[in-house]
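Sat 14:20. Reprocessing the chain from the morning session after the first attempt stalled halfway. Input below, unchanged.
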Amino acid sequence: MSSRTFDNKRSQQQSSSGFEFLKGVGQVAGGTLLSVAMLTSSIVAGGLVGLAVSFRNLPDVRQLRNFFPSETTYIYDIKGKLLTSIHGEANREVVPLDRISPELKRAVLASEDSDFYYHHGINPKGVGRALVTNWSAGGVREGGSTITMQLVKNLFLSRKRAFTRKIAESVLAIRLEQILPKDQILEMYLNQVYWGHNNYGIQTASRSYFNKSAESLNLAESAMIAGLIQAPEEYSPFINMNKAKYQQKEVLGRMLTLGWITQKEYDNALKQSIKLGKIRSFQGSALPYVTNAVAQEIARKFGREALLKGGMRIQTTIDSNFQRMAETTVRRWHERLLGQGLYRNQIALAAVDPRTHFVKALVGGVDPKTSEFNRATQALRQPGSSFKPFVYYTAFATGKYGPDSTVVDAPVSYRDGSGWYHPRNYDGGYAGAMSIRSALSMSRNIPVIKVGKSIGMNRVVETCRTLGIMSPMEPVTSLPLGAIGVTPLEMASAYATFANYGWQSPATVIVRVTDSSGNVLLDNTPKPQLVLDPWASAAVVDVMRSVITSGTGKNAAIDRPAAGKTGTTSSEKDIWFVGTVPQLTTAVWVGRDDNRTLAHGATGGVMVAPIWRDFMTKALKGVPVENFKSPSQFRRPKVN
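Finished this time. Tokens:
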């Protein structure tokens, strides 16, 4: 009695049943009862067909042939671990009928519509019983609804109890049974019905109530969950296990009466202990900074409606363990910086694989529970001197400059609108003639402005656009000092392109998106394009190595070749360190949400480089040491 299956052939559905165990029910009931039922069905059906003339404005059920219910979207890490689910009103995961437990199908039919495979949309016995009850009560007290009637009610009609709605249900149910096979109607019903706690459809309900898929439900669990349909929250085992057990016993008793289970199966199911899962529908995300960034990207590409109802399966580029390590590092350094006088500090971190431009870590603040604003992707902050490599790359790409080209660090003035602009170095002094390598490693301001003016600031803007920095910027004299707004992710992605010698793919936190049937909607397999000059890229990386070995970034030194740049704005509102090894590029920003000064004397080299070093040391544990390619391995561009 425990291995019943659906019969998919329409002719067999109408003549007997989709269940093997229903074949003998007609014999048990007797030929006379069956004849009376068929006669009554014809009379009621004929009457309803006549009434249907008055319901010309009812929905066209033919559209259900191509009906796709709204489904929950699921977001996973790169290894397939579920991070969160996103949905609108309905938390639903559609599952085909052959992946739903036979026990559950029997329990629902016993509870809701045991004659499902005999009637043609309405059940004469149920309708007659409901009419008598409602007439006696002077109003609608009992529905007499079949599963088909319940389905059309859920899909098309209001929930207000009225005789006219009941007639409309009946008309639509008859129409639906004329165009869809029984199994498809049952499948739609089981995926559409509300099971409580914002779970729509049997799959999400099964995972919530029993922490298992719908195909794994046993008889005891099936009877309990089937008993929820009439009043899900009232009979929920999460709220009242005694009521849930009472409903379970009612359903099992009905199945026993119908002869669909044996006395032994009935007794064993009642004795079986129920192991509950947990309410999932309103759980937050495990990694909110990541999942929120994913949701925003999906909404931009496909629209918010598709995100909430499209049933997407989204694989991210993030390893959840790696991400948690990054978040822990940020929280720990937040506390340390507080101890150093950097009050109300926020920290953002973005890590990108230069070879793929896949985002490997994305930390938007010190605590997503208190603020979900993602500073790694949404906060536009001034990069200060960490902008300078963009200027020097542009100079190298012209062929006129190289790492050892000489620039003079001396006082200079430029006409700026109606006045004059007098750039200064951070320390207020001047160092005279020096190489570009020394100028960048010591973060001198005047040399980079001179180089920028020499090659043309418009070219610097073009480089930034190529690197994906899209914030508004003007080709003004002060541009090389980073007086624009950028995000940490933009900075990490730009430096990653340098580290990959000019090859770039769009930075993304998403690997792949499919629908619930496995059809690919988005495939972000890297397709690198050469967007920068390889020699100039290798040269700027080579110069940035000096920043760490002998310049302002000494506190970022790790156990392998690394390149990077400190960044400090003149008012100490934003401090940075952006750095890279061949396998990982990371940008770390520290600042305040109110855009006030962190502390006088706060610099990227002193305060942020150690954070970068701490993170990279952990992130690269077990990763082989790799050297950067020398600029000599590439052809230097001709002067242009």
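The longest strand covers residues 574-581.
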